Structures are given as structure tokens and as C-alpha cells.
Amino acid sequence: MYEFFRDLDRRWIFLLMFLAVSVPILAQLQFPEKPTGLAESTFREIDDLPPGSRVLLAFDYDPASEGELGPMATSFVLHCAAKGHRMYFLALWPVGTRMIEQKIDSVLRADFPHLVYGQDYVNLGFKTGNEGVIKLIVSDFPRAFPADIQGTPVSDIPMMQGIRNLLDLDLIANVSAGYPGTKEWIQYAVTPNPSDIRIVAGCTGVQAPLMYPYIPSQLPGLLAAIKGAAEYEKLVMDRYGHLVHAEDGRVSGIYAEGRRRMGPQLIAHVLMVILIIAGNVIYFVGRRREARS
Amino acid sequence: MKRETLVWTIVFVIGGVMLLANAFLRGAGNQYVRVDERAFVNVGTDDDPKWVNAGSDDILDHDAATISADRRVSWKTSSTVDARVWAEAERADPGQRTIVFSLSRTVGTWLAALFTLAILSFLYRDNPFYKSAESIIVGVSAAYWMVVGFWDTLVPILFANIVPELVKGTVMPGISDSPAMDARIKALVALVLGALLLCRLLPKGGWISRWPMAFIIGAFCGLRLIAFLHADFLSQISNSIIPLWVVDPATQTFDIWSSLENITLIAGVLACLVYFFFSIEHKGVVGRTARVGIWFLMITFGAAFGYTVMGRIALLAMRLEFLFEDWLWLVDPAGRHAIG
Amino acid sequence: MQRTVPLLIAIVCGFTMIVSFFIPAAQRSGDDVAEIFNILAAVAFVLGGGNLLKIHLKKVSDQAAGWGYSLITVTAFLLTLCVGLFKIGANPADRYPGHAWSGEYSETGSAFWWIYEFVFKPITATMFAMLAFYVASAAFRAFRAKNTEAVLLLGTAFIILLGRTYAGVILTDWLPDSLSGLRFENLTMTIMNVFNTAGSRAIMIGIALGTASVSLKILLGVDRSYLGGGRG
Amino acid sequence: MNSPERLGRRAAACRLIPIVSVLVPGLAPGLLLVALTLPLLALTRPLLAAPSDAPPAVTGITAADRWGDGGTAVVLEWTVAAGAVPEFFMIERAMSEAEVAGDLATARLERRRAAQRTAMQAVLADRGLDDSILARPMAIEPGLASRLRSVRAEAAAGIDALPDDAFDVARWMFVDRVEADAAQTEYRFVVDRLVRGESYRFRVIPWTGTAAGTPAEAAPVTTTLEPVDISRLWFFGIALVFCGAVVAFILIARSGRPLRVRRIAGLEAIDEAVGRATEMGRSVLFVPGIQDMNEMQTIAGITVLSRVAKTAAEYDARVEVPTARSLVMTTARETVQAAFLAAGRPDAYNEDLIYYVTDEQFGYVAYLSGMMVREKPAACIYMGMFYAESLILAETGNSIGAIQVAGTAQPAQLPFFVAACDYTLIGEEFFAASAYLSGSAEELGSLKGQDVGKIIVAVVLVIGVVLATAGAMAGADSDLGRTLAAWVGFLRDTVLA
Q1: Which domain holds residue D42?
Q2: ipTM exceeds 0.95, yes or no
Q3: Are the C-beta atoms of A132 and A103 separated by less than 8 Å?
Q4: Would you say residue B87 lies in a domain?
Q5: Do B81 and B133 belong to one domain?
Q6: Distance (Å, rounded) from C-alpha D242 to C-alpha D247?
Q7: If we measure between CA atoms, which residue out of A197, A271, C209 comes closest to residue D246?
Q8: What residues form DSSP beta bridges with A22?
Q9: Residues D180 and D100 in one domain
């Protein structure tokens, strides 16, 4: 028995890992999520705003990180729509516009058909210039975005009336996969105006460690990787899930994407932990046997 | 050995039959595309063409009836759509031609799935499927980066500055035919160095290829020396200049936790630096400090390991989702294939 | 001659780059050198690709062991090269419909795109995904509490791994608020902000010094091994 | 306000009606009203924006080229009257003729397109058609097409006839926003990222709440180029001290004085690994990372290869070097050939063992994994820049039971090498490896120079931290606290900038 585990063929471990990831996908396993502090504070930042507040949704990511960030973006949009906030979409990444359109299609047009473009949400599209754009909209929004993605001047868009600069918006919700992203929003928008601009963000696992220094004073809410996405998704769906149920009670799969992707993640992490423990048990048993002999 | 071969053959035959049945009975793995036509009309002369998009308002400024067919150009583009979209279009208008089945992309999806399986099979042991996939990727990727280097570097930076007329007339109609002087000089220098580099192929005089290598290594040594000292060295020191006595700005009282954190941070940086010290053997006080330094490094490594694991599992999950969702249609959580 | 001239070239180029950093008029020279390097690297594909062909064709002609795989490599290489260099299946750019060659070589729908999408991407992505298996096997095999260093390494990884799942939340959620610093999520934060920052800072300072020192040795001609000579 | 501008605004008002009604058919009437009033609001905006509480204009504004740079920055200075300090200032730059002309051309084109669309929609509406047929313009019947052609020409001519000032094109471009402080009356701001040798005009507008004061414009200023970048002088000094220390120790070593350095465990392992490979009759695999020759880690890896190859030549072991870059292959061949020559075994050198695989990271890894499993090298040495492939290589190497020594300065990959290899050279140790392996006194001298660098870090760090701590203990409001904070600021922003 001990010998078997000591000389364990690593292919058994590979098989376990394969099962740990594939079974939850095939079974569409979902686990309960117990949202942690950061996801809750992200939720509260958006939820505590009075209905009709203005929320800037900055989608700075691309299809490569869609796996981790897509569910966050979906939940942000759903949450804002459910609360009746006005949504201002923009992107500092060129392909960000595609991500915006995708979420507008799959969430707003599909489940909130009563929302009106130009009144409840507007897609301002992509603007080149990285942090320069952020600096500019902090003081002069219409100069950076004189028109929306279809070229309609902002003066003709009802919900853009009275938007002089970023300080006129109530919250920034940023989904970020790198540069430019959350770090730049914090450095150039929040840091100079700590009392006027608030931001919550969702970012990839690789990015997350770099964001911790900003919590909580500059960054009150952070969703880190797929785990953060799943927790926030749960909070939003628990409170507002009834709004997106179809007549037959079915819910579109996109609203469970985060928790679904967390299934393989959780099992695989637990497997990793078990493997570390098992490895050490074998090591110590082996040491004791050696000592005895 | 014979017996093993037989077992594997049976496994593959049964698996293959099931895959084909899944494909033909359920349409699993089928790919559909939306076809769009792009058409342009030359409203200028043959020598000085002026092209107008036949799908835009601008074409209305010209009398289309008078433009002969040989002055029109058109081609089709296609973009992948979900099977559900195709099914809906078919239901609305049977036999429609805008959203159609794509054989090349369906074959591609199958090929991609088989390659995925071939690579994964290496985990069991080395085998002909893995070897084939490996041979293919070595050939394809070497050529891929050569093509990228040709079209993205050689053509726009080298050729466009050395033979601008030729490049403008063929592949990059948008460039200027009189490039800036400094761009030309740069391109010429690169051309000469490149030619020297290729001297390696000559039977004699291969040593001359050391010149361009010396240029590269020398120049980058200079650049990196400055860049690392300027960016990493100075900025890391600058970021570490923090007070060990932290006062909470809100309450104006001593903040013991933040102070402890800062003290640990500075002590950690200094201890790690002692570990990297080469002049003194790691004994006595220095040895003990270096030991603390190594502890900090180990915690750093543990943290990086833990954080990276999460992303790696997500990568595997994405690959398996491709197999189960896009290829086999075993699961359909987002309702992409649902027909009916 | 064979060794002195290149050494002089390296020294002159290196010191020119250093000096130009302090002279505003020359501060862009680093970008120029980078551009020239890119061109040289692209030219060098001739050497690399030629070598690849030479090795595999030799195997094929010798009928050496596994020559069939070499044949596959050569075929895949030449096919991709032709498809990409001749822009097969790529349409002209919308702005220049009259120039058949003006299109993007990797345009969606072109043959080169097809190879990228259905051959290159799945194989490289799966190779990348293999890491999930290897981290598991490394965790089982290498994370053993042999000494203090190993305990710290695996302990930190353990906390972070657990803290990133539901399991971690359950394990420490009962802690009262006065001990909230010990909850996995807060522990993670302290590890990242204090220990990880200290460790990475020292590593980065060390790397900067090491890089500068190696550069200097080369520019002073102390280390000439890159020229295939000098002391060794 | 002149009449053409009114005309322009009215044209804009006409244009937006169809757009809005397309968007929200149900709400069209209400929105129409909004849409019609918006341009009016826009017209009255200048009137609303200058209420009586607008802050007074700034005085004494000057713009000067910043000395000691590449002609990329201008220093603006201005003052405000005490007691009338606004909330913040907006800095603006006058746009150049070319910029204005470009914007104007774009605006004209857009306006023309919109006017033509509107005119066409009117024609179509008369015939009871909607504008969906415009999606396929080539299919429109000739009679209608010719009618559309004529209204398009009319509309275009109408827009072309408008003078330039009918277009609302900005003449000033936003640069930055400067927060004001009630206790401060003199302000200084550096406008960066300008073009050398250009003439610039700047203006400063004070703002309080939503009210803007009158802009104050500075005299035009031309950016000039200076021979030396003075902002980098401190850095020059620090670099000089460090490089001087390295050079000094190399000279000391040359003079023959013995230098002592500590041992590094991983390095002895390299010779051992090559020896073991020889005994077992198997090869040594050397991987110089996946980056090109412009990366210092690759160069450092090649210098280690040079020693490995020499040892291998002496032991008569086989060293295989697959590379991911063509230039690395070229350089590695030179290096190994020379090493065999130096070891007195030029005949044993085989060029074909150093070969190019592919530039693609995972293609290279796929090849290496397969090759390692098939050829089972006895020792695997990884020295250079690595990314995600580090663990794939190290785990595969482990599975075939090879001795593995790794060295990299890529912090993110160190954990994987540390976990899976027998020995790992961490960061700076990796760069020191070639000096150790060569055993030459000169190269060991350079390591002493690096230690001087570490002493500089420690000294500066301790001084800075002591100053910052003393400042914090003295309190930010005390004079001492302020002075110390200023010193820390000088250290961080000027000396270490």
C-alpha cells in the first residue's frame, strides 16, 4: 500500500486531474458560493446607489480572457439593469467594443427589452489613447467621446445631457485584463479625485495581486478571477434572478457561467490540496519507517 | 503486444463509430457561417481608378447602369454563427442562402478536436498521434512566424523603405512612395547587417556574420544596462522608502498593524539582499539573516505558485469545454446549439 | 581581425547607447536599434528555416528512424509558408479593391487563418493546458515539508489555493471579527502585500544589478564567450 | 452669434430627428421634443456658463520652454489673487492649423453624409418607401436612382457652400486639470509630451463648481532641444558609482590580489551533471530560454553554455542545444565551437546538435517534451528567459529521471523551477553563474562590484526610511515633519526619479 503510493505513477494524478475538470463540466456541476467580503462590497457599491444612478461600464478585455471576465461583465450589466441604473459603456481596448455589444445583446436586448438605447444605456465605443482617455474624461467627457459608437453626437443622446466630466457619474465598474485597465483607472481617475469618483473592478487572477494595495481606500470592490465572478454572480442572481427567468422558469445559461466555471475550479483546487497533503503523509510515513529500520 | 494492439484497435473503432454517429445523427460539430458580399465599382479610369463601395450611399452619385461588368470587383466574406441561429433562419425561410453550413470550418473543428486529443494522449505516454501533432506544429509554427516576420516586419519596415514603388504598387497601396530619410537609412543599415548575417551560408567567410551579432549584443547590452538600472533598480528603492511609524490619517492615531507590515517589508527586502550578497560566506549573523531572506523568497514563490494554479486550471477547462461543447455537443449551457 | 573587429563593434555600439540615454537629441536611438533588430531577426528566419529543412530532409533521405515524422514537418512547413506568403484565400483590403494583394494575410476565412485557427491554436492551447496536469504532479511530488523553507513554500501555496475556493471560506468564516486578519482572504492580502512585495523587490533589484554587471563585462571585453572566444 | 453658425446648428437639429425616431419608435414624439430643445440648450450654453460667481481670470501667466530636455515640455506659471482662488484650473493648448484643418474636413464630410441621407429619406418617404432599400443601392431602379443622385448632389453642394466657421470645430485642446489650493496663489504646471521645435500657445481657465472664468492666454512658446538631459544627472551619478565599482574590482582582480566569494550550490551540480551524463553514455540537454539575443538572460545563458560545452568537450559528452530563435542558434554554434576548440577537441564539435526548432513557445515545448521522453538525456540544464513552459520542461525532465539545473531571472517562473528541479539559480545568482563557472579572477571581481550596488541600495533605503519614519513621528503638521517630508520627496522624486 505504502509502496504503491510512494512509487505512484504520475499518470494516476493526471487521470484524477482530468476527471476533476471534466466531470464538473459534463455534469454542469455548480457549488454553493459563499460570497466573501470583496464580492459583497462590490455588490453593495452598485446596489446602494439609488435607482437611475449613472454607472460607467468600462470593458477593457479581449476574447482571450473572456473565460474569467465574461461572467463578471454579464453580472455587472444585469445588476445595473435590474437596479434601473443608467449604463455608459466604453472600452479602452479595441476589441472591448465587441465585448460590449455581446453583453448588450445577450443581457439587455434579450432580458430587458423595455430599456431604451440613449435613455437607459449608451455604447460610447472604443477610444484610442489608453490612460490619456481616462485623464481627459475626468475633466471633459464630451471631448473624449463626442459621439457614440454609431456616430450620434452626445448632444443628441438624452442620457448624456449634463455629463460634463467623470465626476458627474456615480460609479465606475471596470472589467480589466491588463493595460490599460483597473490600475490606470485608479491612478488617473480615482487617485486625483478620491472623494468624487468611486470604482469597482473585476480582473484576471494574474492581475489581482497587483490590485490589492489599492483596497479598500481607492478600490472598494474587487472581483478576482473566476472565483470573484462566481461570488458576485451569486449575489446578483439571488437578489435579481427572478427578473431574467423565462415564462417556463428557465434561466439563460449565461447567468450561471461564473458558478459553472467555478465547478471544475473548485474540484481541481481541492484535488491539489489533497495531493499536497497526501504527498506529505507519504513523506512522513516513509521517514518514520526509515528511522525504525 | 499483439493483444494490446487488438484492444486499442477495438477501442478506436468503437470510439470512431460513436463519434460519427454523434456527428451524423445529431449534427454535432457542424459549423455555420453568415455570408456577406463585398462589391466595389471603379468609377474612375483604368489608369487612375477610383473605387466606390457598391453597398454604400456613395454609389448613388454614379450611374450604375453605365458601368461595365469588368469594372466591378466582388468577393464573399463569412463569419461563424451558432447552430441555433442557422436553425432559426431555416425555420423562418427554408432554403435561405445567407446562413449556410460550412464544410471547411466543420472539418477544421474536427481536426482541432483530434489535435487536442493527440496532445493530451502524451500524458499517457509518447505515441504516434502525439508525434504527428508535434511534427505538424513544429513545421506549421516555424512557417507561421516566418510569414508574420515577412508581412509585419520585412515588408513594411525594410522593403517599403528600400523599394517603395514596388511595395506601394502591390501589397501596401496606402504608403508614401518617398519615405523619410532616417527611415531609409535605418532600412539600409538593417539590409547591410542582414546581408552580413547571411554570409554564414557561404562556405567561407562565415565569421563575418559575427559583426551583426556583435552590433546586436553590444547595443542591447548598453540599452539594458541603462534600462534596468534606471527602471527596476531606482524605482524599487524609491517604492521602498516608507515610514516604519504609520499614523492613521482618519483618526490621527498610531496604526500598529500598518507599522508592523512596513517594518516586515523593509526587513524582508534587506534580508533578501543579504542572501544575494556574494562577498561573504553564509555563516554566523550573515548566514542567519540570509536564511530569513530565503524564507521571504520561499513565501513569495509559494504565493506565485498558488495564484498561477488557478489560471492553469481555467486553461484546461476551456480546452475541455471546446471538446464537450463545440465539438461533441454533449453539453449546451449557453443554448448555442439548442434547435427548437 | 576575426575577433577584434566584432569586439570593437560591440563596445562602440554599447557605449553609444549608454551615452545617448543622457542626450535628448539621441534618446530615440534605442527604438531604432530595436527596429533594426526586428529586421535582423526576420532575416535570420532564413537561417533557422533553412536549418530546419536541412535537418529534416536529411533524415528523410537517410531514411533515419522516424523519417516519416520529418516528412510531415517538412510538408507542414512548406505548405504553411506558401499559403501565408502568397496570401491564399485572402481578399483585397476594402480601401483598395483594385489591388488583389492589398488584403490582410491572416484575414478571417483565408487559408492562413484556417491553419492558425484549426491547427496552430488548438495544439498550442492544449500544450499550454497540459500545465494543469503538471502543477498537480509537481504539488504531489515536490511540496514536501522537508525543512523550514519547504514548509513556508507549501504553506503559502496551501493558504492561497484554499483561500481561492469555497472550501477556504467555510474553513475560516467562523473566526470572530477581532481575528478577521486570520481569515484566508485577509491572510492572502497580507502575504501578497508584505512578504510577496519584499521578496519580489529584492529579486528585481538583484536582477537589475546582475543585468548591468553582465552588460558591463561584455562591454569591457571581459566576457567574450558570445563571440565564441576570449577566455573560456 | 453669426447667422451661418445658426444655420449649422439647425442642420444638426434636422439630422438627429430620424436617428432618434429610428431608435425609439414608441417614444418618438416625446423624444422629438427633447431633441428639438437640445440644440436650443446648446445655443444658450455660453450664456449659462458665465454666471456672476465665475472666478476671476488668472494673472501673470507665462509659458517657457523647460530647460535641459529634448524640447518636449513647457513650464506654465500663473498667479491668482488671494481670496479669489478657484476650485481648479483647466489647461488648454491652441490647436495647430493642420489639426484644425483635419477636424474641419472630417466635420464637413460627416455633415455632408448626413445631409445626403436626410435628403434621400425625404425622396423615399414621398414614394412611400423606407430607407431599407438603401442597403442594396445597386438594385434601386434607374428612375429613382437618378432622382436620388440629383438630391444628393444638391445636399452636398449646400454643405460645401458653408463657410468654415459654420462648423463647430474646437480650436483649443484640453491638456490637463490642476487642482487649486485656497492657501496657494502661485501655480506652476509642466506640459509634457510636446514636439520639439514647434510653437505652442496655452491658456488657463479657472473653474469653480460649474462656472468657468475668462481664459488667460500665455505668449507663444517654442520648444527647444538642449544637449544634455539634466533630469537624468542624478541617475548618471548613481550609474557611474555602480559601474565604477565593477570596473575597480575587475582592475583589483587583474592586479593579482585574491578575491573571495561564497559558494553557490547549483553551480557545482552543473559539472556533476555533465560528468554523470558521460558515465551513463547519454546526452546533456541545454535550453537557452525562449527569447532572442536582445534579451540579457539569453546572453547570460549562452555564457553558461560556453562553460558547459567546454566541460562536455573535456569529458567527451554530447551536448544538444535546440533553440527557439535563429539568432540564438547562430550564436550558440559560435560559442560551442570555440569552447571545443579551447578544450582541444575541435574534431568532436558537431554543428547539427545545435539547431533551430520553431519560434512558437508551445511548438518548441511540444518538440522538447517529445524529444526528452524519446532520447532521455541524463542532465537537463535550463538557463535563460522562461515563461509558462518552465514547469512542462521541468516535470517532463523529472519523469525521465534527469538531473536538472535551472537558472532564470523571470520571477514568475522561479517557483516552478524551485519546486521541480534539483538546483535553481535565483535571479542574480543566474547572472553570477558564468563568472563562477569561468573561475577567472576578473569575472569574480565583477561580483564584488554587484555587492557594492547592494550596499548602495541598503544605505539609501535606510536613510530614506529613517527620514520618512522621523517625519511621520514628528507629525505632518509640525515644521520638522514638513521639512523631513520635503527631504523624502527630494530623495524619491529627484534623486531616484
Answers
A1: 1-48
A2: no
A3: no
A4: yes
A5: no
A6: 9
A7: C209
A8: none
A9: yes
For the domain covering A37-244, report its CATH number: 3.40.50
| Domain count for chain D | 3
Cβ separation B316–A21 shorter than 8 A? yes
CB D277 within 8 A of CB D283: yes
* Entry pTM: 0.87
Considering Cα of C158, then A69, then A232, then A182, what sign does the dihedral take? positive
Say yes or no for a CB contact (<8 Å) between B317 and A21: yes
Alpha-carbon gap: D43 to the closest alpha carbon of chain B (Å): 31
User: Would residue B157 count as lying in a domain?
Assistant: yes
Q: What is the pLDDT of residue C185?
A: 73
Q: Please report the residues numbered 114 through 173 in chain B whose beta carbons come closer than 8 angstroms to any beta carbon of chain A.
A: 123-124
CA dihedral (B173, B176, B180, B186) in degrees, to 10, reads 10
The reply to whether residue B298 touches residue C149, judged by beta carbons under 8 angstroms, is yes
The answer to whether the CB of A157 falls within 8 A of the CB of A122 is yes
Write out pLDDT tens, residues D409-431: 988 889 899 889 999 999 999 99
Partners of residue B307 in chain A, C-beta under 8 Å: 205-206, 208-209
Sign of CA dihedral A33, A203, D412, C37: positive
Distances (CA, A) of D50 to C129, D87, D171, D207, D356: 62, 15, 20, 10, 70
* Best C152, C209, C216, C227 residue to mutate vs chain B (most B CBs within 10 Å): C152
The answer on D149 and D77 residing in a single domain is yes
* Interacting residues of A138 by C-beta distance below 8 A, sequence separation 6+: A165, A166, A167, A188, A189, A192, A193, A197, D177
Between D379 and C143, the higher pLDDT residue: D379
Can you give the length of chain A in residues? 293
CA distance D276 to A2: 31
pLDDT digits (tens, 9 = 90+) for D172-230: 888 888 888 888 899 999 998 888 889 999 999 998 877 889 999 999 999 999 888 88
> How far is the C-alpha of C38 from the C-alpha of D209, rounded, in Å?
52
Range of the structural domain that residue B264 is part of: 242-327
Q: Could you tell me the three cell numbers for C58?
A: 536529411
Answer yes or no: do D40 and D63 share one domain: no
**Crossing angle between the packed helical segments C148-163 and A257-292, to the nearest 10 degrees:** 160
pLDDT in 10s for each residue of chain A, 293 residues: 788 888 889 999 999 999 999 999 999 888 888 888 889 999 999 999 999 999 999 999 987 778 889 999 999 999 999 999 999 999 998 888 888 988 998 899 888 989 999 999 999 998 888 888 898 888 788 888 888 887 788 888 889 888 888 988 999 999 998 888 998 899 888 887 877 889 999 998 777 777 877 777 789 999 988 888 999 999 999 999 888 877 666 677 788 888 888 889 889 988 998 999 999 999 999 999 989 88
- Spans of all domains in chain A: 2-26+264-292, 37-244
Query: What is D141-194 written as a DSSP string?
Result: -HHHHHHHHHHHHHHHHHHHTS-GGGS---SEEEEEEEE--TT--EEEEEE-SP
What's the pLDDT tens digit per position in C25-76? 888 888 889 889 999 999 999 999 999 999 999 999 999 989 999 999 999 9
Three-state SS at C21: coil
Q: Name the amino acid, one letter, at B207.
A: W
* Residue D16 to chain A, least CA–CA distance (Å): 7
